Amino acid sequence: xxxxxxxxxxxxxxxxxxxxxxxxxxxxxxxxxxxxxxxxxxxxxxxxxxxxxxxxxxxxxxxxxxxxxxxxxxxxxxxxxxxxxxxxxxxxxxxxxxxxxxxxxxxxxxxxxxxxxxxxxxxxxxxxxxxxxxxxxxxxxxxxxxxxxxxxxxxxxxxxxxxxxxxxxxxxxxxxxxxxxxxxxxxxxxxxxxxxxxxxxxxxxxxxxxxxxxxxxxxxxxxxxxxxxxxxxxxxxxxxxxxxxxxxxxxxxxxxxxxxxxxxxxxxxxxxxxxxxxxxxxxxx
Length: 285
What we know:
The chain contains nine helices and ten strands. By secondary structure, it is an alpha/beta fold.
């Protein structure tokens, strides 16, 4: 049975959502997954409106307008008869997390919202979802209008840190690759302060240090336990840069990274940085 059967696509009618729609559509088709669009809106109002209209009337009008906008959004990509559309009121991140728990979604797909003055951020809602969601989260490239490449290339890259959670991440990546008949590569980055020009992107062609050999032995054991036979790349350099360079070098459709509520601030910052700068969608699992 496919691991991903129910996909949630939170929308806010932005150019980012529109750019991501073909990718989401293709992913749902490949996985034979049911897709749900979710729009969360805020009922905040001005005091001037309250002078002339009751709060209930104003709420009903706004909810009706929000429903009409949701039902008319991306109907060519997601026809109403084949796609569930949910409307919720309140804080976006809170409501998204609630819907995921209530309806047991297997994957959230959402853009990161890089606006003109927020190129170094991924958006507060995205950050909260990455931190709190109970299921994998896939984010697109960090730009307003970049459309991710269609998944037909089917090249997945899974980054493993060799921490305690690595086996789970590898199992998830392996199942994703199996479900869409994709090629899976594993990448492990060894932190180094060496300049980019000195960085070794594949240590099979370079030095065989003790740390590198230990990493390969650990990955081999993880693959044995997970039933995986993926190609392994051990790379060195600043971790974020090394992972991104490998994803670009392998022309990855999706970069899969670990994400958990137990991670510390530094690891969470690394996750945000990879999501922000990756050349392809990132699945945080």
